[in-house]
Design a protein that fits this description.
The chain contains 4 helices and no strands. It has helices at residues 2-17, 22-33, 38-44, 51-90. Helix 3 (38-44) runs antiparallel to helix 4 (51-90). The longest helix has 40 residues, at 51-90.
Length: 94
């Protein structure tokens, strides 16, 4: 299970790095962190694992959620910065 969680997180971060605008980010957020996402399904199934696997699996899933959320915030900040950097080229600033 941990390998699946790590693969989901890696895939999500790669997708987020390629997001071109806020709509892409929102779509990725829903896909990877939404209630019906694969990661959330795995997280809800942690309780069905043997007791010795629950802790590590839960920690991995929570770490993946944090990593994805941080990647979203980072990409959002870079997109905003790029948009502001281009503002002078697109509009007259007095």
């Amino acid at each position: 299970m941990i390998e699946r969680v790590e693969a989901i997180a890696a895939r999500a971060v790669a997708v987020l790095q390629e997001a071109m605008d806020e709509a892409d980010l929102e779509a990725a957020r829903v896909e990877y962190l939404g209630r019906k996402s694969e990661l959330m399904a795995l997280l809800s199934s942690v309780g069905t694992l043997p007791p010795e696997e629950r802790g590590p699996a839960g920690k991995a899933a929570n770490a993946a959620k944090v990593a994805i959320a941080e990647a979203i915030e980072e990409r959002m900040a870079r997109l905003a910065q790029a948009r502001l950097g281009d503002l002078g080229d697109r509009e007259w600033i007095d």
